[in-house]
Write a structure and sequence with these properties.
With about 280 residues, this protein is α/β, with parallel strands linked by helices. It has 2 domains: about 110 residues, Rossmann fold (3-Layer(aba) Sandwich), CATH 3.40.50.620; about 130 residues, Glutamyl-tRNA Synthetase, Domain 3 (Glutamyl-tRNA Synthetase, domain 3), CATH 3.90.800.10. Helix content is about 35%, strand content about 15%. It contains 10 helices and 12 strands. The strands form 5 sheets. It has a 3-stranded parallel sheet with strand order 1-2-3. Strands 4-7-10 form a 3-stranded antiparallel sheet. Strand 11, helix 8 and strand 12 form a beta-alpha-beta unit. Helix 7 crosses helix 8. The chain is globular, with a radius of gyration of 20 Å. Bound molecules: glutamic acid (GLU). Glutamic acid binds next to loops.
Length: about 280
């Protein structure tokens, strides 16, 4: 068994991250497996150097140790580019030239704009461009991202499912998040692509993470099938909420692991408050 904790070094760890790291570490240790650390640092506009060390120091304090040198996604851009190339060759991605404003206008003008769990989905404007139109725009240097063609992709990989240790077996709905961005205009990759490529690269057998990422797993299973990667088991654990029942954000300073370190709280007393990730 191999599990991982994959924080983004864009802020300090809070109690929710500590729980996510604890769940992954605990599962691996109980099965004599390996626990790995991955810095998801592709968004260079938000990453800050001091947070890498801060995260590792908080994990040491929590006594959560990793078994291989931490992976940095910023070192892996070539791997994401070749995965994107493979998807391009399959005809399962397309370039999208829309600006944010155009997408907003598009979703507002279509009465029956498709909706996902987080609001309107991309209406598919650029999916209908011809190959010549795409080539001309790219040749003219029009900035573009690359989107999953969810309909085309589902033809290549029909009848997928994923299994979650807490939430059971789920058929994959390729359209759940619509034609998501797999490579951003500015950084050439995006979360959904990078996480799938790296979970396979790090041979992660059990992907544990918060239930806020549950819907993303529909996209991730689809990408794994397209790219020929193995199917991991999932565990989407409950989220740690603040006193108002709202999920923690990096700005919740009072929930920062650093804050507990400084006020003399022990890691054990933090762990004792954590719900069981499977039954809790
Ligand atoms: N980097 C993501 C986060 O900080 C976690 C991604 C994952 O576990 O799949 O929320």
């Amino acid at each position: 068994m191999r599990t991982r904790f994959a924080p983004s070094p864009t802020g300090k760890l809070h109690l929710g991250h500590a729980y996510a790291a604890f769940v992954a570490h605990d599962l691996a240790r109980k099965h004599s497996g390996q626990f790995l650390l991955r810095h998801e640092d592709i968004d260079t506009t938000r990453v800050r150097e001091e947070f890498y060390g801060g995260i590792e120091s908080d994990l040491h304090w929590l006594d959560l140790s990793w078994d291989e040198p931490p992976l940095r996604q910023s070192d892996r851009l070539d791997a994401y580019a070749s995965a994107l190339e493979k998807l391009r060759n399959l005809g399962t991605v397309y370039p999208c030239f829309c600006t944010r404003r155009e997408i907003l206008a598009g979703t507002q003008s279509i009465l029956s704009a498709p909706h996902g769990p987080d609001g309107p989905l991309y209406p598919g404007t650029c999916r209908t461009l011809t190959a010549d139109e795409r080539d001309a725009k790219i040749a003219a240097g029009v900035p573009h991202c690359w989107r999953l063609d969810a309909a085309a992709a589902s033809e290549f990989a029909p009848h997928l499912k994923f299994t979650d240790l807490r939430l059971g077996e789920h058929p994959v709905n390729p359209q759940r998040l619509g034609d998501v961005v797999l490579a951003r205009k500015d950084i050439g990759t995006a979360y959904h692509l990078a996480v799938v490529v790296d979970d396979a690269f790090q041979k992660i057998t059990h992907v544990t993470r918060g239930e806020d990422l549950f819907e993303s797993t529909h996209v991730h299973r689809l990408l794994q099938a397209l790219l020929g990667f193995p199917e991991p088991v999932y565990l989407h654990h409950p989220l740690i909420l603040d006193e108002n029942g709202v999920r923690l954000a990096k700005r919740n300073e009072s929930m920062a692991v650093e804050h507990f370190r400084e006020n003399g709280t022990s890691p054990e007393s933090l762990f004792s408050q954590f719900p069981d990730p499977i039954s809790g």
